[in-house]
Amino acid sequence: MTPMSAPIAIDISRLGVREYTGTERYTYELLAALAKLDRFRAYTLYCNGLPERLPTLGPNFSLRNVPCPRLWTHAGLGPAVARDRPALLFVPAHVVPLWHPPSVVTIHDLGYLAFPEAHTAQRRRELDLTTRWSLRAARQVIAISQATKDDLVRHYAVAPERIRVVYHGVDQALRPPHDPQCLAELRRRYALDAPYLLYVGTIQPRKNLERLIEAFACALPHLEQPPLLVLAGRAGWLSSAIFQRAQALGISKHVRFLGYVPDDDLPALLGGALAFVFPSLYEGFGMPVLEAMACGTPVLTANGSALREVADTAALLVDPTNTDALAAGMLRLTSDANLRSALRERGLARATMFTWERCARATLDVLLASFA
């Protein structure tokens, strides 16, 4: 086969997990948008076990299951693409295999450098080595924000012209909820018996949740009708101290941990919140911020990493290392209806600027340019 007639290979191994978070959602939504956009070029999707769910794909997409219990990227994917000889390999959320055709890789963040204490020493070494290898092996690199691109240039001396910034999109299903019965049913199922401030994401140290809980404790005495602080997401690295913090501060009755929330519940959970709080110390993008905005929920977020870039002027930005600033921000949002209304309108407008179709078009441009 000539290079342009050979298929484009895509590593979709991230879709093999049951519960999607950032990189899995990126892979799924980008694949769905790419399938709608390009109905002519051939694509082969490589996986380690068949995913439970896939987006609607056209006849130009084929699935290649390569079961491999260990070291799938190098022992499974690498030999498979060596045999199949695709024109190009796209790795949206993993590592480029040792044997590879011309490749494009997406780098999501360098959190292990920005927040090393959230990873074990061994895990930091693994992430550093695999990132270095992927940056060396790939013809082109996609960064999901300018902040991530800047980090790659700063820490790994990648030539800026090899990196293309391609923003995420927002799920079209995320819209302000208009069904009171749906909202009431969700509140009943999750026992949300008061207005609530909401965080959605992995429960882990770099999300700054201990400080968020401490700031909430500082704000509580100043609130006549205190809301709940609701944290939704699966437990991540070193999360035990976060779960214990509310009890240590004596505010357990005001703090709820929901665990992982299915996608179908997110629009109502986000849209029913008084405000969304996301004070993460470091993000490569910050998709939950845009998802909350798309649901019409006012947002408080950190003024650093990619969060300032993504939120722009559509959120209340605070210093995430300052507990008093976080407490003051939560007080403003709970007490100032005009501020919430203004942020709601700005957020809705901001979210429309990020679409998966736009992400797919820009990604396809990078892939096709890498044939040369």
Automatic annotation (TrEMBL):
CDD domains: GT4_MtfB-like. GO terms for biological process: lipopolysaccharide biosynthetic process. Residues 21-172 form the Glycosyltransferase subfamily 4-like N-terminal domain. It comes from the Bacteria. InterPro entries: Glyco_trans_1, Glyco_trans_4-like_N. One of its GO terms (molecular function) is glycosyltransferase activity. Keywords: Transferase. Residues 193-347 form the Glycosyl transferase family domain. It holds the Pfam family Glyco_transf_4. PANTHER family: GLYCOSYLTRANSFERASE WBBK-RELATED. This is Glycosyltransferase family 1 protein.
